[in-house]
Amino acid sequence: MIPLIRVINPVRALSRCSYSTSRDQLSKLGHNVDPSELLSDEEIEFEVEEVRIAAPYNGHIAGKWWGDKSIKPFLMLHGWQDNAGTFDRLIPMLPKQFSYLAIDLPGHGLSSQIPHGMQYHTIDKLHTLNYILKEYNWDKISLIGHSLGSVISFMFTSVFPSKVDFVVAIDALKPMAYDSNKVAHMLEEKVEDFMIADMRNQEKSEPPAYPIEEMVDKMVKATRGSVTKEAARFLLKRNIKHSEKHPGKFYFARDNRLKHNFSPSFSQDLSVELAKRINCPYMFIKAKNSPYYEKKEYHDEVIEVLKHNKNFEYHLVDATHHLHLTEPEKIAGLISNFICKHKKCTSPV
Q1: Which of 44, 51, 133, 322 is spaced 20 to 30 Å from 189 by Cα?
Q2: Is the CB of residue 44 less than 8 Å from the CB of residue 19?
Q3: Which of 147, 153, 226, 271 is catalytic?
Q4: Nearest to 276 by CA among 164, 158, 160, 175
Q5: Cα–chain-centroid distance for residue 97?
Q6: Cβ-based neighbour number of residue 203 at 10 Å
Q7: Do 313 and 215 meet the contact criterion of CB atoms below 8 Å apart?
Q8: Is 147 an active-site residue?
Q9: How many CA atoms are closer than 13 Å to the CA of 172, on its beta-carbon side?
Q10: CB under 8 Å to 262, separation ≥6 — which residues?
Q11: Which pLDDT belongs to residue 261?
Q12: Are 186 and 178 in contact (CB under 8 A)?
């Protein structure tokens, strides 16, 4: 069995918080300060432990385990270039009798990067989930994913339906079906850019560094405002390092190769067939003010297939892509009710 290294680090988690982000507060981000030191208002206690799961490429998968470690958790999967911090505001609003393990996918957050010369692929994450199942000797897992994490949840559940007993997918439904006339040009660009990023990693050159306020602005701009300045700190906490070349500045610590990730284009027919294999309780939450990233009819067709599952629920919410982070109160009730509908809750939501 792959050895597990646990680093105990209880932290305070907060639910309904009001934000007032000052320059001094933001500057603390580079010093690994817990979010509880930056926030105020109604607090709750929630034991959180940092975990490390050894990976077979001489690296590790990092994560945050919320709650009782004797209880099999909901496995939380973040989006592309995000990290486990994306769930820091949602988890405290979910039923507290359960536990939640939010991981950093390879190359993200505090997880190790894959070896030089290798490229990130979404299908590889099926192996990542199987490593976790093997590590903890679980037969089944319950998944809650956002964006890329939702796509991974769809893929893993459809490929291994006997290994998944519950899914909540937030604002991404399935692998995208690209127009065939665009794929060659996309590959050409991605492969060339990947080579440059990979060479920089091998040279161990430090990425560009910025003041913390500019790091926040870059994150907000990159997400087209889906991540607010107030919410950015939850992602930055696991995603920045102090610059050695430029004191007082920081750089993004995630693997730069992630920006040039190109997942295989699944045909619409394949996604439809995969959807037919899903039979566990499955909730999909779509943000109204977020794009579909592909032809909407592809999305709608798979939704219609999933509706044949008697335990499928579909909700449209007036919010943007990172709704679970910026406005968790809009979906916490939906998710909590779905959990209690299919799991045994000891107290009402």
Answers
A1: 322
A2: no
A3: 147
A4: 158
A5: 22
A6: 8
A7: no
A8: yes
A9: 24
A10: 119, 186, 187, 190, 191
A11: 81
A12: yes
Tell me the CA distances in angstroms from 193 to 65, 209, 219, 223, 301, one per residue in order: 35, 20, 21, 20, 34
What's the token pair of residue 257?
A: 């190769």
**DSSP secondary structure letters along 110-126:** TSPPPPTT----TTHHH
Q: Phi/psi at 210 (nearest 5 deg)? A: -145, 160
The string of pLDDT tens digits covering residues 210-253 is 999 999 999 999 999 999 999 999 999 999 999 999 999 999 99
Tokens of 341: 């509908």
Tokens, residue 81: 């270039």
Could you read off the pLDDT of 266-322 as tens digits, one per residue? 899 999 999 999 999 999 999 999 999 889 999 999 999 999 999 999 999 999 999
C-beta of residue 134 within 8 angstroms of C-beta of residue 163: no
The number of beta carbons lying within 10 Å of the beta carbon of residue 12 is 16
pLDDT of residue 186: 84
Question: Which amino acid would we find at residue 89?
Answer: R
- Among 283, 275, 278, which residue's Cα sits nearest to residue 334? 283
- Residue 310 pLDDT: 97
Positions of the chain with pLDDT lower than 70, given as ranges? 1-45, 264, 348-349
**Hey, what are 47's tokens?**
């034991």
Q: Under a CB-based contact definition with an 8 Å cutoff, are residues 128 and 105 in contact?
A: yes
